[in-house]
Amino acid sequence: MRFIIPEQIETERLILRTFQASDWQDLHAYYSDPVCIQYTVGKPLTEGGTWRILASMIGHWQMRGYGPYAVVERTSGRVVGPVGLWYPVDWPEPEIKWALAQDYWGRGYACEAAMAVNKMAIETLPELHLISFINGENLPSIALAKRVGARFEKTLPFRKGEWHVYRHQR
To answer: Which residue range or ranges hold the N-acetyltransferase domain (predicted)?
Structure first.
């Protein structure tokens, strides 16, 4: 399948690229951390669970022509988490997702990556109007959505909770 967005984006400190099979080991730092996943997958994953999540992100690219990027820290070469376009069948609309391992919080990486993804989407998919779909209790993620310029739009019931739709500006 031909992808409809660039397979790589570069920022000052990060390389955002399509995932590779070996990325599951770095991703496991996020998916096995109970603090990181409390508002997303809900419970720490085994190595096999992380591998399956990675397979779903690679598959997303195949099914939609776009998907989340592996965020690679330039200085270490490590994958710190996924940031990119995400639109599973049960989501209300396509979104910009972000999820970084706890060791990389507070460095501005998620903001830098999300802004690069939004810019890329505006340039390559102007018809796509992106949201971020965030558990209402996930205050750090809500703060990040606001920091990158997204605006609260509405609340929806989802996965036994209230989730917020933040609309990204074009």
So the answer is: 14-170
**CATH number of the domain within which 62 lies:** 3.40.630.30
Read off the tokens for 33.
Answer: 């951390």
Query: Looking at the domain assignment, is residue 155 inside a domain?
Result: no
Domain that holds residue 79: 8-125
pLDDT digits (tens, 9 = 90+) for 82-115: 999 999 999 999 999 999 999 999 999 999 999 9
d(CA 143, CA 124): 26
Taking the complete model, does pTM exceed 0.90, yes or no?
Answer: yes
Sheet with 68-73, side-by-side order of all strands: 8-10, 14-17, 68-73, 79-86, 95-98, 131-135, 161-167, 151-158
What's the whole-number mean pLDDT along residues 129-157?
Answer: 97
- List, in sequence order, the alpha helices (H) in 82-132: 109-124
Rounded Cα distance, 135 and 142, in Å: 8
Residue 154 forms part of a structural domain: no
8: Cβ–Cβ under 8 A, 6 or more apart, which residues?
A: 15, 16, 17, 18, 69
